[in-house]
Predict the 3D structure of the following.
Amino acid sequence: MLIIDSKDCENIDKALKKYKKKFEKAKVLLQLRGRQSYTKPSVKHRNMVLKAVYRQQVASGKIEK
């Protein structure tokens, strides 16, 4: 649960902006999207390895973005 401390003199736009920043930092939306479908641990691990290989190839200059 996100709690925003707002002062009486604070504008509602500023409070909404604070809420949006906290919401973004909490990564609530990413968690919800991740829980929509189940991915097996072996598939997660395979994707992590493939991403690491890709990043390493980009860093070494074999692949250009």
